[in-house]
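Entry:
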Amino acid sequence: MAVFEPPNMKTLRLSRAWLACLALTLPVAWTDASMAQGRPAATSKGRGATKAPKLDIPALEAQLKSRNPAEMRAALTVAREAGSHAVSLAPLIGQTLRDGLPTDLSIEFIQTLAAIGAESSSGALGALSHHRDPKLRREAARALIKIKGADAVKTLRRCMSDGDAAVREVSASGLGQLGAKQMVPDLFIALDHKVAEAAGAIGQLCDAAQCEQLLGKLGRVSFDVLAPGFDQILFRPTAEVSDDLKIKVVGRIREMGTMEGNRVLKDIQGRWPAKGSKKVKQAIDQAVIATEGAAGPRTEGGAP
């Protein structure tokens, strides 16, 4: 005999069956939704990996050789966006630069070599660092900083003697960014020849004795010029520059008793990391208080 089942009970059973099926399909649907929104699923392989762009190298080479500025620029844009993936184009770009181009197009070629970052491009950029146009020499120096390598360091060292002040400053700053510690003696020579950026680079690279040497320039070189170097010294890790030496730097700035010294100390105080040395922080705090009522900045020779 058939058992009577109320309609609401049938509905309930059907609902339970539907929910069970839904539970089985949810993981797949969630994965699909995640992928649709650009988020890889938790089980996908190669999370965070970026695919190399597909470049039509022969077509790009043809554009670069065309001598048509519009086509050359189009190829350069693709190469810059591809970065290191366009490394096979670097030799042709470098050779085209050597062959000679209008200034504005040359700058785009240089910037593309910088974006690609092939160390082998140092030769072409080094040759361009002798160009009669200082704009191109400046761009070449900037590109060498991004390309890095021993050849880049050698060229930047030579460029610190360039006839253009901006080329000298870019080159000195670049040696600091490249961590070229062996160039600190050359940077001191550049500093003595009024290359202001050399002070900051020395501060990035100096060992204890060289940092002391920079500190000894106070009173002979404008504090404005030396301040970036002291800033670099103070924020370097303790493993590179001891707390005692940092406190000595702070003390020398405090002894100046100038408004400018107070301004620099306040700026450093505001940027001091929470996990930085408490000893150095205390010295900075005390120096800021001690120089609050300073009479004013001193002259380059150190006299009020």
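Residues 207-304 form one domain.
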